[in-house]
Specification:
Oligomer: single chain
Radius of gyration: 51 Å
Shape: rod-shaped
Strand content: under 5%
Number of domains: 2
Helix content: over 70%
Distance between the termini: 85 Å
Number of strands: 0
Structural class: mainly alpha
Order of helices and strands: HHH
Largest sheet: none
Number of helices: 3
Length: 180
């Protein structure tokens, strides 16, 4: 129970005031300590957030660089395919030209057979031997030239096809090495 105001002496009032002042001082110390703790927590949290943001930014930068490199590789591959399709002979076009050469070769073979038949008929009718040799040599020369062209076209087609395969292996290997 509290004593009434009138019953308290001056000494008692001073003692009570001193006790109240001590409690207030202790309360101020406690509040200052809490403020210091809250400030420390806040600064620690700020540092943690800054570190997390820096790490996140670094990870995003690395991911962007990796993505850019991957797209560069894809673009190079597309460019190689585009160059390849622009410079290589399409298969259908090759087949058309090849069939045309085969047809011409067959016609020349038939022409040669006809010429040999005519030459044989003339030999039988006493054609001089020198004219027969001239016809024979001319026919052989035409046939050899056309066979050489046919073989050359076939060789070119084989070289182109082989080059395409080698180029695709190189691109595949380069792309695989670049990815790793």
């Amino acid at each position: 129970m509290r004593p009434s105001k009138e019953s308290c002496s001056h000494v008692e009032l001073v003692t009570r005031f001193a006790a109240l002042e001590a409690h207030f001082k202790a309360f101020e110390i406690l509040m200052d300590e809490r403020d210091r703790r809250y400030t420390q927590r806040s600064s620690a949290q700020d540092e943690a957030v800054k570190a997390a943001l820096a790490t996140s930014k670094e990870a995003v930068t690395k991911a962007e660089i990796a993505t850019e490199k991957r797209f560069e590789g894809v673009n190079e591959f597309r460019s190689a395919l585009s160059d390849q399709s622009a410079t290589l002979l399409p298969r259908n076009e090759y087949l058309v030209q090849h069939d045309s050469l085969v047809k011409t070769l067959e016609e020349l073979k038939q022409w040669r057979i006809g010429m040999e038949t005519k030459i044989a008929a003339r030999i039988l009718t006493d054609l001089p031997r020198s004219e027969f040799e001239i016809y024979r040599q001319a026919t052989d020369k035409i046939l050899q030239t056309n066979q050489g062209r046919s073989q050359g076209v076939g060789l070119i087609g084989s070289l182109i096809f082989g080059s395409v395969i080698v180029l695709s292996y190189i691109v595949t290997i380069a792309f695989t090495l670049w990815k790793h």
